[in-house]
Amino acid sequence: MGRILLPLADIFDVKNIVGLTLSESQAKWINNLSNPRIEARLESWKDHDPQSQYDSIISIGAFEFFAKLGLSAEEKIKSIGSFSPGVTVRSGSKATYTLQTVVDANSLTEDFHSLITKQIFPETDSPQLLEIAKSCVQIFEPVLIPNGRDDYSRTLHAWQTKLNENRDRCA
Q1: What SS3 state is found at 95?
Q2: pLDDT tens digit string along 36-91?
Q3: Which residues make Cβ contacts (< 8 Å) with residue 139, sequence separation at least 6?
């Protein structure tokens, strides 16, 4: 999360940035940056009650946790869709919503599929694009759907390399 918040403040001159995370170390790292424009809160989006509406909301890596293994397609759509009303309540009618998520990890190479499903996002079942669309089509207007597979492949490769280098420390 910190890597997206810093450019928002430094490059795009966003004045007030609030990041929500369930990771204590991530919140601490971001808050230790001592950037007065950026605040990380150790808080679930479900519990978040902002003082005013946001102009923009960015979701990174949340949908992977809504789509659990064993859910039917309909249950997965309902679970993913539970996030959308919260976004609309917390944002104005002209707000932008950016979603970054792994879509259908089954389309990745076997090495990366195994890394995602067994080590990074265990117990998840990455949603298919159609499931995401069905979960929020009544609320949002999709504007752009880029495929960052090559970028994410580089990210996964870096994660796998670091994991392998530090496996003894993680045990």
Answers
A1: strand
A2: 999 999 998 888 888 888 888 888 878 777 778 888 888 888 888 888 777 877 88
A3: 84, 85, 87, 88
Q: How many C-beta atoms lie closer than 10 Å to residue 38's C-beta?
A: 21
Contact in structure between 40 and 21 (CB atoms under 8 Å): yes
3-state secondary structure of 15: coil
In order of start, what are the domains of the chain with their CATH numbers? Answer: 44-170 (3.40.50.150)
Computed from CA positions of residues 152, 1, 125, 144, in that sequence, does the dihedral angle turn out positive or negative?
negative
Q: How many helices (H) and strands (E) does the chain have?
A: 9, 4
What predicted TM-score, i.e. pTM, was given to this entire model? Answer: 0.75
The dihedral region occupied by 60, where left means phi > 0, alpha psi between -120 and 50, and beta the remainder, is beta
Give 109-146 as a DSSP string: -HHHHHIIIIIISTTB-PPPHHHHHHHHTTT-------
Instruction: Yes or no: say if 80 and 135 are a contact pair by the CB < 8 Å rule.
Output: yes
